[in-house]
Design goal:
81 residues, 0% strand, mainly alpha, single chain
Length: 81
Amino acid sequence: NVAVGDRTSLNELFGLIQNSLLRHEVSNKAVPIYQDFKSGDVKHSQADITKACDLLDYKPSHNISQGMNAAMGWYINFLKD
């Protein structure tokens, strides 16, 4: 898990997964289930990648949407087996 310096909500992530599945012609009727927050749940998170960029010359090659699209085919094939 490597950060890309951007924030993605769980609702956005759910939508990205659904859209990527549709692009791969996988039917999915899942709907999000909302519950109250529990102790220890993280409401907001965004990693600071400044140090990795400065010291390691790290540059994210994909945003979350691009990464999802690039990886989804592998996940679909993996789960078929």
